[in-house]
Structure formats: C-alpha cells, structure tokens
Amino acid sequence: MADKVEPFDPLDMSHYRVEKLKVRQKKGVERWMAILGMPLAILSFLVIYFGLDVAFLQNIDPSGLGSTALKRFEELGPEGFSRANIAMLAVFAAAIILWVTEAVPNYLTSLIVIITMVLTNVISEVDAYHQLGHRVMWLNILSFVLASMLVKTQVAKRFALWFIVRFGKSASSIFLSFIVINVVLSAFISATTAKAAILLPIFMVIAAVYGADGSKRNNFGRNLVLQNLFQINISAGGFITGSGANLLAGMLIAGAIGSPDFLYGDWLVAAFPISMALIFIGWIVGTRWIFPMTPEERRPQIEGGMERLKQELHKLGPLKWEEIRAVAIFLVVLALWVTDRYHGISKTATAFLGAVTALLPRVGIVKWNDVDIPWHLLLFSAGAYTLGAGLKTTDLASLAVDAGFDKLGLGEGTPFWVLYLLLTGGMIFSSLLSQSKTMRTLVFVPIAIGTAQRFGFSVLSLAFPVALLIEHVYALPFNSKPAALLYLTDHYSWSDTFKFGFVMLVIGWIMSILMGETYLRFLGYTPDGVFGLF
C-alpha cells in the first residue's frame, strides 16, 4: 500500500527554509546572457588590449593626473603608462560583462580578474593578493562572526517573531512591524542576504494566513515580500556597516579627503533619516498605489493562523542566558561604533573585540564551526577591491572623467547641479544592469571623487550623495542576492517587481536631489544654492 502523502501545510515554517525553495532556472534573456557572457568578455578584452590605439594616451597632459599615476608616468614614460591603462580598461570591461551576465560564478570572475591584472602588469602580485587582507575584508569577516552569534542563539528570530506576534494585529500593523524589524536587524547584521533568510519563513507564513500561498498570488503577498525586499536593502543604507559596499565607499571617500576612516556616526546622521523616509514612502506607494489591497485581502483568510507564529515563538522557550550575552556583546559593539569620533577605535578594531569576545571559551557564545562565513562572497569582494586598486594605480577613473566631460562639452564653470544630477542619476539607475553593489561602488564613487576634484568642489559634496544610493538594488531579481532569493517565493512576477522597483528608483533619485538641496546642505556636505529650489 502506498504511503499516505501528507497535505501541504502553508503555515509550517519549515517549508520556507532557503534550501527548500525551488531553484530558479534562467530563461530567455538571462539564459542567453549567461551563454554569451564568456565569449563576449574574452572578445572585449582582446579588442581593447590589442586593438586600442595608444596615441591618445601617449599625449596625456601629466599635470591633470593623480599622484600615483603621475609617478608611474614619470618612471615608465608615456608608452608604459598607456599600456597599463589599456590593460586596466580591458580587464575592467571583461569583468563588468562577466559580473552582469553571470556567465561564471562571481567569485570565479574575481579570481580571473586578480590573476589577469597580475599577468598584464597592471598591478604587482603583492598589491593584488593582499586585498584579501584589506581592513574592509576583515570587517566583513568579523561582522559575519557577530551575525552568526545572533543566528546561532536564535535571538534574531525570537525578536522578529515576538514583534510580529505582539504588534501584528492587522494588515497595516504587520507592515509597520516589518519596518521596525528590518531596521533593527540592519543595525546588527551587515549581510542583507542573511536578513532575508531569517525573515523569509516568517513573512511566508503571514502571507499564507492572508490568503497568498503556493497556489495563488494576491496583493497582500506581493506587498509583503516586495516591501521586505525594499526594506532589507534600504535599511542597510542607513548604517555604514549595513553592507560591505557601504564600508568600501566610506574607505574610498576617506582616502580621498585624507582621513583615516569614515566615521560611523557621520554616516548614520546623514543616511539614517533618508533611509527611514524612503522606507515609509515605499510602504505607502506599494500598498496604496501600485498594489492596493482590497478589504478582503486585508483580513486573515485562515482562522487561527497567527497562532502558529505564537507556537513558533513558544518553541524557542524562555529567553536564554546566551541570547542575553549575544545582545549585550552586540550592543557594546554598536555603542563603540557610534562613538568612534570620541575614542578613536576603528570600526574594524571594534568588530575584532566583539568577535574575540564572542569566540572566547566559557565567556563567548559561538565556536568557530558555528560561524557561517560565505567565503565565495569574500573572494568576490577581494577581486572587486583588486580591481579598485588597479583603477587607483592607473588613475583610470580620473582619465575617464576628463575624457567623458570633454566629450560632453562640460568644462570649467559647469554648475554643481549638473554634475550632481549626472552622477546620482547614473548611480541609482545603474542598479538595473548590475548585480553587484561593490562593483557599482568601485565605478561611481571614484568617478564622483574625480569629478569633484576636477571642478574644484568638495569631495564629500558629490561622492557622499552617490554613496548613499548604493543600496537601491531591488527592481529586478538579478539586482542583488536578496532580490534573487525572494523572487523564488513566487509571490510576484518580473513585471510586479519592476513596476514597484522602478517607481522607487525614480522616487529615490528625486529624494536624493531634495536632500542635496536641504538636509545634506544643512549638514555641510553640499554647497548653498545647489539647485535654486529653496
């Protein structure tokens, strides 16, 4: 007799673990991009490296070059300098193609980038390989140690469940509860994908309670998943430790202004209010305009459904001593990050202290085998940082800025607002093409720095507003890892996420413009009378 098949229980949280979600197969354009990505990357490298005319580089006016590039120019002469620039451009173009098309895993692209830059003499072996030991890399590693502490003790899951059970009494209060949960988790967990994995089973059960399960979609489910995707990313933008790309942007800006570090508190004061405003705007736009919910969709469709979340919370038992210690360690780390201006301890050193404490025998909470460090992501970051080091060595960003503005006819006397609109618009809408926040950071932040220096503006006036747009990666499933993960829930289509995402990209750009004229000007980042609006 055949075994009895148990009916699918839409309220069982175990069904929604990441490893149980169906794998999304690439189709259509995505599939062809993956197939053609490698040959296109190889072809672009060969065409640029062997076919680009070096004459325009051999006639460079060295007075406009950065100090590193100028030294190389003087040591090797025009021909040597131009060869390095052409090699860097060839590697950069090929890397962009591979990262965008995902023809090979992104960590493998990074390894290819590193060895190619060494073999083409763009950068020395020492400079290329030591990017794996960069202080931002260390901060990423240590942040994963701290995040693993919260996951292993299940205190992050407990907080999310408790908040929903305590305050999620209606459709609106559920959405507001997830806003609070996402913001709080962003302060503690720097990996946006980890936050998505923690919250996914919870909001999937809630979606089922409100009538959106594996058999049908509704606007409650669309809103719940897309709002969480938006909040996971935008709340990360409120903290410099919210993602590795934020940390990289802070490092690049700090280096350009001659500062040892970008202070945690400075980023928080500027970015957090903007992130919160965007999150609330996104909630209103999504639930009231793009995917308005009917009165029926606002009511639970499964009686007693929320009781299942209470049961999940009850299974965790009473608050444990190790959970209290985990929260205490992280609160101390956060306090030291926020007050870095006063004690001078860097974010990386603070994370070191927290991670060491968390790993200490008898005192700590986790063992090394409990720590979930995604080394494939770190290898990808190492390749991206190596690419950034090559851009700095060859001064390619400055050359691109000069050439680009010359082509556009924008010379001395160009109004600040023109530059601001070009850079912020390019940064935010580039997310439609790239899956990598780190890559976009490496492209646009150095360009913003070079633009500010070329036109005599403060580096912070252009580079910081550009950096504040890093986390806008939610419009399409391939724009970020959380976007790819949540698309697997099957609660929305490509057109659904694009409609909401593109509208929020436009609103995000408008918000950036308004903040440049008001709040960022009040904080002293942008000059007075930027756009003449106020």
TrEMBL record:
Belongs to the SLC13A/DASS transporter (TC 2.A.47) family. DIT1 subfamily. GO terms for cellular component: plasma membrane. The lineage of its organism: Bacteria, Pseudomonadati, Acidobacteriota, Candidatus Polarisedimenticolia, Candidatus Polarisedimenticolales. The keyword Signal does not apply. PANTHER family: SOLUTE CARRIER FAMILY 13 MEMBER. GO terms for molecular function: transmembrane transporter activity. Keywords: Membrane, Transmembrane, Transmembrane helix. It is a multi-pass membrane protein. Coiled coil: none annotated. InterPro entries: CitT-rel, SLC13A/DASS. Its main location: membrane. This is Anion permease. The chain crosses the membrane at residues 32-52, 80-100, 107-124, 136-155, 167-190, 196-213, 234-257, 269-291, 377-394, 414-434, 455-477, 497-515. It is found in: Membrane. It comes from Candidatus Polarisedimenticola svalbardensis.
